[in-house]
Amino acid sequence: MLISSSPSDLSENDLSLALLGTAINMTSTNFAAATFDTIYQVQSNCLNFSLSAEKSTIECVEGLPLWRRSYNEINNELYKGYKNGNPEGMLNEIMGGLTSFTNNSKSVQFTFYFVYMNLQISMSFLLYPLFKSAKSASVVGMFLVIGTGLLGSNFFTLWVRDPSINSIWIMALEVYPGFALFRGIVDLCDYGIGSKRAGTFGMEWHHLKDNNNGMREVLIIMTFTWLVFILIAYSVDNISSLRSCLSSKKSPKKITSSSNLCQEPNTYVQMEKEDIVLEREKVEQFQNSPNSYYSAICYDLKKIYPGRDGNPDKFAVKGAHLALSRGECFGMLGPNGAGKTTFISMMIGLLKPTFGTASIEGLDLLNQMHLIHTIMGVCPQYDLLWDTLTGREHLRFYGRLRNLTGSALDEAVDDSLRGVDLLRVGNKLAGKYSGGMKRRLSVAIALVGNPKIVYLDEPSTGLDPASRNKLWEVILEAKKDRTIILTTHSMEEAERLCDRIGIFADGCFQCLGSSDELKNRYGGSYIITITTKPNNVDEVQSMIEGLFPNATRTYCLSGTQKFELPKTSINKSDIFGAIKLTKKRFPIQTWGVTETTLEDVFIKVAVEAASAIV
Ligand SMILES: Nc1ncnc2c1ncn2[C@@H]1O[C@H](COP(=O)(O)OP(=O)(O)OP(=O)(O)O)[C@@H](O)[C@H]1O
Known about the structure:
By secondary structure, the protein is α+β, with helices and mostly antiparallel strands. It has helices spanning 12-18, 33-36, 71-80, 93-102, 106-127, 134-161, 167-173, 177-198, 215-255, 274-288, 340-347, 369-373, 391-401, 406-419, 435-447, 465-478, 491-497, 515-522, 537-547, 572-585, 598-611, and strands at residues 49-52, 57-60, 258-262, 267-271, 294-305, 314-325, 329-333, 355-360, 363-364, 376-379, 453-457, 483-487, 500-505, 508-513, 525-531, 552-557, 560-566, 590-595. It has 4 domains: 7-93, no CATH class; 103-232, no CATH class; 267-517, Rossmann fold (3-Layer(aba) Sandwich); 524-595, Alpha-Beta Plaits, CATH 3.30.70.
């Protein structure tokens, strides 16, 4: 313990420094010191003490409330109360803080904290565009809070009380919300504690006129900066939205040949294919002269999800043009996260498009969605059924929503149940249905009441092959007199049901056409699949590539390899000859030759789209 041998030699300051205490002198408002400094203080009238060198302890003879052996003890008492009560009625720092709440006008305090809170919120809006991630915003926020606390408690509070410092400088500092808060709290505490001692009441509205406090200036400065901050933040936000809107409006024209759609943090470079250009031109033509042959027309639908928690905006759908005729079943294929569900959600009115619109049976998606709902059926990706209603009750409910009543409703419900092979179990609770039965009921709900347009989001997910075939028959029957938009991950389903297929990747259609057209366009090749032992993989590859220089290996895993050979450069007998030759060198477990499948097209298009993101 660094204490001089004779207690009488010690000054108050020496003692407080030597005892791990803070050198800050005790004042009635240094309550904030609890946060940043050790609270240990030797009070001015505690000068008679004894030092016991053997025990290395110091004891205060007069036993003033804050005189304790260690700052832990003091801190404990500050929070828990005095050990033997507080007969002297002394205030400690924390009590000082509380007094500022209890001894000042509630309405003054409410106004002060309310204005500060709003100022802080508007400052957050103002600073928001400066940060790209939530993490960096939190780190900067933490530094600001700690930095303001240190500066406020160690400097600003002293300056406020220093008459030699021009009040203009203090007011200039109060433009920063943290210092304005400090100033207000200092004044409230001065009034609170001062009045408690004097047995009067603290700050009231009429005290704002007094020159010995800065509450009036603080309130004016905070209200003014609050309004300025919110106005600037609002203008910045509007300018950036306007910019993004303008750039999205320009994009369709830019896209015609090769275009750039720019979005932080990546740049998307997209080469539009001929089929996409043709579809867009068709849609643009209908925009000027509507055509009743087409039941659903999408005009450049776009969706940007606003970024949250510091994350950037997500451009989920970057522009979809589509014209679907009556009786057409259109299949949307695409990798996970391509934007299919977002597209469908816009079409069924769950999400508002950021740009563009669509026309369903002549009704506008943006302004007449309530009418579109009456001619639309939806089978969502996940079954939305009530466990306590029967299948029949579900269909009656949705039939009524589509304006069916009386015998027409009964007939439609029976037809729907029959169509999906649920007539026998129509009166059973949906909660007791198997997964396949629930899926079929969801499809029946989408079709009941003869809607003009039906959206089926992965309708056969989770069905066994027999139930799936049954469901496909229902959809094939249903598509005769309505337009169906179907999303699926099953190539077989798309080939079986869809008249046209669009592969959707990276927020837009990458190709459009019938299954055969796509296979011809992206295929036109034979696929040889060969499975050998994994250690023969390299030999097989060099042999095939030696025999067919145009061959490209498209797949290789655990000894199974796929090679793509352009049809024009080869005939099938050459392939059989090559396989025979290979078999002589090493054992081939299985092999096969196929023409391009829709799955090959899908993989090719999805990979191309992914590699176009620079
Ligand atoms: N509410 C949202 N806010 C922000 N981003 C979203 C939101 N919903 C979807 N996204 C993002 O938009 C992109 C497209 O999502 P979407 O669900 O439309 O894809 P999908 O093609 O339907 O995928 P899946 O086949 O897996 O259902 C994804 O990157 C997704 O993370």
